[in-house]
């Protein structure tokens, strides 16, 4: 039988998934493999097994398409995470079914494309003896083993575009505009889009803030003759009392759905200051649309590198980006720790130097004055500027 490689996309969709699929298919053909694409994520692996053969014809023209031609799901029988640290064990019979599918289709292994939850499933496959490699996918950019995940740059571009548009309408009506973006445990999207889009206040899960701190910045701008303010808040940012705003109660084996903190912040600002305040929730707009150039290149390299790992039988590994190189790490190391924003990182320091408030009441003037060269080097050790990463990658 012809040797084959299986590919699947799992969890929430994001720009760049099709670029990974295309990169994996093209590189597989160079090595003499056929490609099998399983439909609707892990669900397509067992009872009933649903897949289609992938080739140059049906993957042509998908490089710039959002979504995934294979479909995806974050529900069903394959759930390995119910929280950031809570692992759910998969049923043995389910794992045996996956193994049987791999053997019957003569697969060299599986390329599993997903975030921390999906990769936690891949890790259980590896422990069961199923040949698998992982490709990191999350717009939140919160996997510690890779400097960037594809989809993040596209999400930031979407949020930045929204801020550009909100800027003009806020200025025209002297309004406070609150933009809620995704980011459950990490505020990378809020931080990067806030800096790129000229936000005045950025609220992150990693930095404790208060309504007094937010209002203080708005009043400060008023005193400077600036009668509008842009506020960016990550959906996972905790309220001053430590609570998180959710859209629904947590269901069994699933993380609670976040959302709504933007409206809470907007309402409180309007109540406290009597200022006309509006809220915009980007939601799934951040997941849709074509990937940016950076994400296309990164995703393509991830797909090709993943096939190389399977060809060399380096199972249980996840592709990662360690600028400027594409490398790999053990999946278990990749999902064991989230990559969050360091409150004293160079990006945060730069934002404060620009006068951006994080709602914590800290002075926003000249934060670099007390930093030594050694301090700066230590803070930026694990943080690569996006522009430099793009240049190195392209």
Mean pLDDT rating: 87
* Main sheet attributes: strand count, strand direction, barrel closure: 7 strands, mixed
Query: What spatial order of strands do you see in the largest sheet?
Result: 3-2-1-4-5-10-11
What is the total tally of β strands? 11
> Which range best describes the helical content: under 10%, 10-25%, 25-40%, 40-55%, 55-70% or over 70%?
25-40%
Structural class: alpha/beta
As for the CATH topology of the largest domain, it is: Rossmann fold
Task: Kindly describe this structure.
This protein has 394 residues and is an alpha/beta fold. It folds into two domains: 4-150 and 291-334, Rossmann fold (3-Layer(aba) Sandwich), CATH 3.40.50; 154-288, Phosphofructokinase domain (Rossmann fold, 3-Layer(aba) Sandwich). It is built from twelve helices and eleven strands. The strands form two sheets. The chain has a seven-stranded mixed sheet, sandwiched between helices. Strands 7-8-6-9 form a four-stranded parallel sheet, with helices on both faces. Helix 3 (116-128) links the parallel strand 4 and strand 5 (132-136). Helix 1 (17-30) packs across helix 8 and helix 4 crosses helix 5 (188-196). Mean pLDDT is 87; it is low at 379-394.
What is this structure's SSE topology?
Layout: E1 4-9, H1 17-30, E2 34-38, E3 51-54, H2 92-104, E4 107-114, H3 116-128, E5 132-136, H4 152-173, E6 176-181, H5 188-196, E7 201-203, H6 211-223, E8 229-234, H7 261-273, E9 277-281, H8 293-311, E10 317-322, E11 325-330, H9 331-334, H10 346-353, H11 373-379, H12 386-393
Parallel strand pairs: 1-2, 1-4, 4-5, 5-10, 6-8, 6-9, 7-8
Antiparallel strand pairs: 2-3, 10-11
Helix pairs in contact: 1-8, 4-5
């Amino acid at each position: 039988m012809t040797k084959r490689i299986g590919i699947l996309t799992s969890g929430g969709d994001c720009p760049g998934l099709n670029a990974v699929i295309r990169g994996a298919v093209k590189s597989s053909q160079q090595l003499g493999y056929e490609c099998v694409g399983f439909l609707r994520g892990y669900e397509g692996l067992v009872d009933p097994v649903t897949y289609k053969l992938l080739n140059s014809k049906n993957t042509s023209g998908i490089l710039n398409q959002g979504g995934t031609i294979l479909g995806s799901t974050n529900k069903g029988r394959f759930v390995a995470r119910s929280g950031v640290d809570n692992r759910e064990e998969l049923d043995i019979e389910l794992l045996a079914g996956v193994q049987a599918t791999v053997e019957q289709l003569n697969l060299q292994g599986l390329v599993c494309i997903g975030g921390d939850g999906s990769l936690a499933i891949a890790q259980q496959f590896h422990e069961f003896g199923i040949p698998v490699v992982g490709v990191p996918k999350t717009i939140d950019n919160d996997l510690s083993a890779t400097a960037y995940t594809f989809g993040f740059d596209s999400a930031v571009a979407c949020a930045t575009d929204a801020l550009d548009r909100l800027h003009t309408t806020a200025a025209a009506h002297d309004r406070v505009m609150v933009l809620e973006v995704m980011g459950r445990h990490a505020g990378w999207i809020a931080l990067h889009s806030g800096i790129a889009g000229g936000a005045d206040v950025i609220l992150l899960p990693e930095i404790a803030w208060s309504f007094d701190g937010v209002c203080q910045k708005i009043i400060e701008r008023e005193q400077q003759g600036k009668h509008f303010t842009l506020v960016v808040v990550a959906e996972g940012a905790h309220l001053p009392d430590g609570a998180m705003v959710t859209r629904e109660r947590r269901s069994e084996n699933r993380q609670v759905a976040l959302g709504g903190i933007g409206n809470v912040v907007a309402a409180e600002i309007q109540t406290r200051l009597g200022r006309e305040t509006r809220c915009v929730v980007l939601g799934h707009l951040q997941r849709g649309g074509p990937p940016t150039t950076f994400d296309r290149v990164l995703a393509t390299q991830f797909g090709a590198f993943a096939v190389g790992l399977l060809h060399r039988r380096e199972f249980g590994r996840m592709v990662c980006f360690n600028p400027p190189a594409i490398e790999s790490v053990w999946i278990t190391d990749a999902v064991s720790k989230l990559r969050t924003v360091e409150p004293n990182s160079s990006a945060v320091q730069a934002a404060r130097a620009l006068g951006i408030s994080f709602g914590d009441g800290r002075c926003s003037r000249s934060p670099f004055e007390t930093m030594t060269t050694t301090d700066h080097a230590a803070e930026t050790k694990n943080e690569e500027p996006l522009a430099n990463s793009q240049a190195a990658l392209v």
